[in-house]
Design goal:
By secondary structure, the chain is α/β, with parallel strands linked by helices. The chain is built from ten helices and seven strands. It binds S-adenosylmethionine (SAM).
Length: 260
Amino acid sequence: MRGHSPLDSGAIATDCSESERAPCAPYQQRNLLDRLSSRSTLELHYRHMMAREHDLLTRRLGLVSGVVLSVGSGWHPGRHLFPAPSFRLVAVDADPDRVAGVCETGRADEAHVGYAGRLEFPPRSFDVVLYRLVLHHIAFQGPLQPCFSEAARLLRPGGAMVAIEPGLWHPVGLGLALANRARVATAIHGTPDDIPLSPRRLIGEARAAGLDPELHAVTYTWRRMAAPLQHSLQPLDELGSRPRAARLGHTLMLIARAAG
Ligand SMILES: C[S@@+](CC[C@H](N)C(=O)[O-])C[C@H]1O[C@@H](n2cnc3c(N)ncnc32)[C@H](O)[C@@H]1O
């Protein structure tokens, strides 16, 4: 699937037909937390989180149209944040099955197999480079610096890298880091490759790549919390753009701008 855009220059190395395997660790279905969590509780959280992401970007990004690159696009490349036709959405994922799914359902305007940090798009091709729930997997695979440098290279002047990732300084993030260290994360929540990221690391990587960062908490709630508790804590999320409070979010949003 190739759309009609300046990106159709043949510069990208791979396309939907490539069969390199995904780098994510296999997911263990029979884990403790999945046995305890109901689908409806998880869905409640996902809906709230997507609405918060949308609100934050509407308030802070200052873009109403453009070309977006979603890296690690999975099944959901980010249409809830960048609707068609105002935004052209280019999806990239290391997993060919996910790329094929996105191609078939038309959730993106273009989709390609590719690895973060190794993409061959021309410089200054995008208004936004989106990493939604991906950098914390890449942190398990290796350094994050190539992702940030690549985003800086691919962004047009005034564009922004947007990363939405689990935060290390929230109690759930700290618990997850301890579970990783004790090598019990797979038994507890199905995978060893969820590495919560510290606000300091996200901001430091952005600055080192020459981007100008700001941080927000998307939410303080956790998808495993009982629904009434989620409802009662959700109003706290309104504090999520205050600098000190932002750092403690369960899910963080980094907006890191390229110079205009
Ligand atoms: C948790 S999913 C997130 C999917 C989507 N962004 C979303 O918000 O639903 C992580 C995705 O990142 C992809 N991924 C992991 N490591 C990657 C890498 N190094 N380069 C490209 N994609 C990667 C996985 O294949 C998977 O589809």
